[in-house]
Amino acid sequence: MSTLGEAWSTALTLIGGFDAKLLGIVGLSLRVSLSAVLFGSLIGLPLGASVAVGRFAGREPVTVLLNAFIGLPAVVVGLLVYLLLSRAGPLGQFGLLFTPAAMVVAQTVLITPLIAAFARQIVADAWREYREQLKSLGASTGRAALTLLIDTRYSLVTVVLAAFGRAIAEVGAVMIVGGNIDGVTRVMTTTIALETSKGDLPLALALGIILVGIVIVVNAAAHATRRWALHRYG
Amino acid sequence: MSLYRRLLLCLVTVLLAFTTGVRAEDRFITVASTTSTEQSGLFGHLLPIYAQKTGVQVRVVALGTGQALDIGRRGDADVVFVHDRAAEEKFVVEGYGVERKEVMYNDFILIGPKDDPAKAAGKDILDGLRKVESAKAPFVSRGDKSGTHAAELRYWKAAGIDLEAARGAWYKETGSGMGPALNTASSINAYILADRGTWLNFKNRGDLKILVEGDSKLFNQYGVILVNPARHAHVKKELGQQFIDWLVSAEGQKAIADYKIGGEHLFFPNAKKV
Predict the structure, then answer these.
(1) How far is B259 from B247, CA to CA, in rounded Å?
(2) Which of B220, B243, B230, B247 lies closest to B79, judged by CA?
(3) Which of A46, B9, B78, B177 has the smallest number of CB atoms closer than 10 Å to its CB?
(4) Contact B118, B192 (CB under 8 A)
(5) Buried b (16+ CB within 10 A) or exposed e, A19-50
(6) Topology of the domain comprising B107-218
(7) Contact B180/A87, CB-based, under 8 Å?
(8) What is the Cα–Cα distance from B194 to B191, expressed in whole angstroms?
């Protein structure tokens, strides 16, 4: 059988078998990346909105930096977070290196610029449209930013999903700060890298198929929620 | 607004589920080790036995020897378990480690294409490498400062080949672990120095096979070192020492000897009796 064919049948066997170990790995992947998306959104959305609405010196350079950092290489983020969290580093005393928490930190750093940059663009477009209206209502800058974030929420869902996609698919950062420890910090992508190292290409590809499947399910759920909400709340 | 709140509630629930799920286990140590011990499946065999006996979880971070020692130097592991004697002794002399204990050895093998265009097959590794070099046959090097990479460089030197001068398109440095390097060699049908454990556990062999083995120069000694608690106060001294003592004990040595793939022994325990 070809490697591709073998990969599909391995993937189906793995899914059908509800392999406990695989479930653990999938669960950790989701926990880490969803947490990173939560923290990334809590930081990135307000940050993007305030850059869009606020008037302060240095707004242009901040915009350029946010846009540039969308392309931060995962391995560089991993290395930076590693040096920060290492016992010899400034945050070493917390002993976070090689834990899921370290992976959440790394992925948060990775996706916050992406969320902030796209949120800034979306909110800036809305701001252009509603600026006079909000100003005539006497809304403060903060109030305007919040109102526009809520107003553009359906567009922002796509941004958050893109961030989730980037987080769950990256391997460079979690490999370095998590250490790919069996049963502790091993996630989908690091497992795929490990099985590739062992030359078990069908198994690696099967895990890749499952990972893509999970991302599709998460996106479908978000899409359904959005449709339901649009229908219900308009 | 209510949708926003609901979404927030949902996210907070996720966060709570996450944080409660990652309560750190109390009794664990972190061991920085090499890809050969991890990818050969040895740890998958040893650690459950050790956990059952002591209740201590051993968390292995598998890297090249150079990087594993660096993790130890930074204090990010309690124990290092690697295979590059010179580098290990340096690690101890510089005060990063307490004491080096020998645990076991495995052996390196020269892998190459089945039809062996360079005629490297034989019993002598140095002779085999000389033939690869004179034929300028494709050779894949780890190039990642791992123990295997260090050994490869030693063999070239011992074979009287000045790699800097001989280097050319035939010599491919991949800067990767044993498995990825084997994947590369298998896809371009190149010669490569590998450890037997990783090779036995490696599935994507293509047209490669073992050409040189059994030369006593190919033996590869593993050592284990406790990271110096005097330098890094948080090192789990007792738990780390307990693991080291178990590895070199009769029981640990037997567990190592018991590990086989397809009936073949991978690692040969040789700790000094205490």
Answers:
(1) 14
(2) B243
(3) B9
(4) no
(5) eeebeebbebbbbbbbbbbbbbbbbbbbbbbb
(6) D-Maltodextrin-Binding Protein; domain 2 (3.40.190)
(7) no
(8) 10
Q: Show Cβ contacts of residue A116 under 8 Å, excluding neighbours closer than 6 positions.
A: A43, A44, A45, A47, A48, A51, A66
Grouping H, G, I as helix, E, B as strand and the rest as coil, residue A3 is helix
3-state secondary structure B26-95: CCEEEEEEEHHHHHCCHHHHHHHHHHHHHCCEEEEEEECHHHHHHHHHCCCCCEEEECCHHHHHHHHHCC
Residue A191: alpha-carbon gap to chain centroid:
19
Q: What does chain A come to in residues?
A: 234
Strand partners, B171: B139
Among A17-26, B41-50, B133-142, which is the least confidently predicted range? A17-26
Q: Which CATH class is domain B8-106+221-269?
A: alpha beta
Q: Which residues contact B55 (CB under 8 A, 6 or more apart)?
A: B27
Tell me which of B3, B6, B27, B148 to substitute to probe the interface with A (most A C-beta atoms closer than 10 Å). Answer: B3
ipTM: 0.82
Q: Provide the total of helices (H) and of strands (E) in chain A, helices listed first.
A: 10, 0
- Any idea where the domains of chain B sit in the sequence? 8-106+221-269, 107-218
> How confident is the model over B200-221, as pLDDT tens digits?
989 999 999 999 999 999 999 9
The encoded tokens of residue B74 equal: 């930074």
pTM of the model as a whole: 0.86
Structure-token match 């609405």, residue found:
A53
CA distance A213 to chain B (A): 20
The domains spanning B8-106+221-269 and B107-218 adopt the same CATH topology: yes
Nearest CB to B59; choose among A184, A197, A199: A184
- Do residues B109 and B210 make contact, with C-beta atoms less than 8 angstroms apart? yes
- β-bridge mates for residue B61, sequence order: B32
Contact A95 B14 (CB under 8 A): no
List domains and CATH numbers for chain A: 29-190 (1.10.3720.10)
User: CA torsion angle for B125, B129, B134, B140 (degrees, to 10)?
Assistant: 160
| Farthest-apart Cα atoms in chain A, separation | 69
Residue A186 is given by DSSP the state -
Per-residue pLDDT tens over the stretch A61-71: 999 999 999 99
